Amino acid sequence: PASHPGVVVVGSALPLPAGALLAPGRDVPSTAQGGGWSLVMGSSFAAAHASGLLALVRELDAKGLQPGLLKAAFVTAAQGRIDGCATLARHAASRGPICSALAQTPD
Q1: Mean pLDDT (the chain, rounded)
Q2: Minimal CB count within 10 Å: which of 25, 33, 41, 89?
Q3: Bond preceding residue 15 cis, omega within 30 of 0
Q4: Of 24, 22, 21, nearest to 39 (Cα)?
């Protein structure tokens, strides 16, 4: 499946396959069975992080997301690490300095 067109491969730890992206997959807040929150880890959570970020980008800039070019929507740093703030800022240029307003730093 990772080699199919339009598929974005996301992992949570190095090493990753060529062309894969790195997203947070450790100490991710998630709902806990029976209520409350717990910290979880794994590539499934990294994939959810990337999917959620793409959903936010689509909300901000629907024209910036084209099928087959989804990976290009992300701003990445060394080793394919997704920079969530820079990604949102790129697609929300008319909405002001998002990262600064949220007191965030690049991932």
Answers
A1: 81
A2: 33
A3: yes
A4: 24
